[in-house]
TrEMBL record:
Subcellular location: Cell inner membrane
Protein name: ABC transporter ATP-binding protein
PANTHER family per the UniProt record, alphabetical: ABC TRANSPORTER ATP-BINDING PROTEIN (PTHR43875:SF14), MALTODEXTRIN IMPORT ATP-BINDING PROTEIN MSMX (PTHR43875)
Residues in the signal sequence: none
Family as reported in the entry's similarity comment: Belongs to the ABC transporter superfamily.
Keyword field contains Hydrolase: no
Length: 361
């Protein structure tokens, strides 16, 4: 296992030496800790696969270096980096048995046969294909084949890291939960450094200790699921994590008060706003209540989604969502109350710290 350091990495596809290249990765400067379980989360086209392929050596970055345990591996091939990689679609040898497919990476490295057998049996059990061990892979379904790909990624215990690129896309939903839980358990047991690409927030939040949120070729926040929920660093994180996402309202700032369409909202402190920034107020729907006293609001509709109600409303001319417990009463003429401590202020889309309030970070 190794710490993976990305040292000022940037990447542009297409011919080298263009005056104004279009960067698929703008600037990534970050360390992935030895033994960490990370998810790279973001929408389609934000650069997740590009970043993963730079780590594995499938792609050479246009700028910057990549280090494993402090050693520069930028010029090294995938094989020389000693990485296991699992892709979105199955990569299996159809003419080999399921057992031999799993044994292949170990036999390739001349691991003693007794050890090969022990490891392959463990993995067969994990992916629930024990009864298929002696059958040729060509007869399997796409999702069984993908389980073999996953198993091949996990069979070696001596890799520097295991990289997963949306590995559960073709797996049925029930099996997804099981495999994800097993990956997590394997991580706890063996301490592999794991990097897992996904655009699915549930997948990212359940798998990873640290979620790396990417947007438009940049890492916008790295944090625990709780940090991403409570203190989104960028309005995109607020919007992308959570369902519905964070409310983002255009707001003016007057000391420790936000002004939204003429309504004054107390803040937990005085936000530090650089120069002429565009300012917004962010609050998650879970931290707004409908009360008898408070700010005027127009209710548009109430969606009952089982254990919760989502209230869609208009506040000071802007759309707003409120999440209520299923049994919560909505007063006859409801008003809005914000949980002051849960309000984040954004300047040019980035979260501003509150001066001296100890809420930064
Ligand atoms: N081989 C390529 N040549 C040119 N442009 C590319 C190539 N691969 C990716 N891109 C572009 O680079 C950007 C980042 O793509 P990337 O595949 O890394 O994103 P992603 O977040 O993994 O998306 P997805 O979830 O759809 O796979 C996109 O604009 C994409 O069109």
């Amino acid at each position: 296992m190794a710490r993976i350091s990305l040292d000022h990495i940037r990447h542009a596809y297409g011919p080298k030496g263009l005056a104004n290249p279009l960067y698929a990765l703008k600037e990534v400067h970050h360390d992935f800790d030895d033994g960490g379980a990370y998810a790279l989360l973001g929408p389609s086209g934000c650069g997740k696969t590009t970043l993963l392929n730079i780590m594995s050596g499938l792609l050479q970055p246009s700028h910057g270096r990549i280090l494993f345990g402090g050693k520069d591996v930028t010029e090294l091939s995938t094989e020389a980096r000693n990485i296991a990689q699992v892709f979105q679609f199955p990569v299996v040898y159809d003419t080999m048995t399921v057992y031999d497919n799993l044994a292949f990476p170990l036999r390739n490295r001349r691991v003693p046969e007794a050890e090969v057998d022990a490891r392959v049996r463990t993995i067969l059990k994990m992916i629930d294909l024990e009864s298929w061990a002696k059958r040729k892979a060509q007869g399997l379904t796409a999702d069984q084949k993908q389980k073999i790909s996953l198993g091949r990624g996990l069979v070696r215990s001596d890799v520097n890291a295991i990289l997963f690129d949306e590995p559960l896309t073709v797996i049925d939903p029930h099996m997804k939960w099981i495999l994800r839980a097993q990956l997590k358990q394997l991580h706890r047991q063996f301490g592999f450094t794991m990097v897992y690409v996904t655009h699915d927030q549930t997948e990212a939040l359940t798998f990873a200790d640290k979620v790396v949120v990417m947007y438009d070729g940049q890492i916008v926040q790295i944090g625990t699921p709780a940090e991403l929920f409570d203190r989104p660093k960028h309005t995109f994180v607020g919007y992308f994590i959570g369902s519905p996402g964070m409310n983002v309202l255009q707001a003016g700032i007057d000391g420790d008060t936000a002004i939204v369409g003429g309504e004054r909202i107390a803040l937990p402190g005085r936000p530090v706003i650089p120069g002429e920034a565009l300012t917004e107020l962010g609050i998650r729907p879970e931290f707004i209540r409908l009360t008898r006293d408070g700010l005027p609001v127009e209710i548009l509709k109430i969606e009952d989604i089982g254990r919760q109600k989502i209230v869609r409303a208009r506040f000071a001319g802007q759309p707003i969502a409120v999440v209520l417990r299923e049994d919560a009463d909505v007063p006859a003429e409801p008003k809005l109350s914000f949980d002051t401590a849960a309000i984040n202020i954004y300047a040019n889309s980035w979260r501003a710290d509150y001066a001296g309030a100890g809420l930064g970070g």
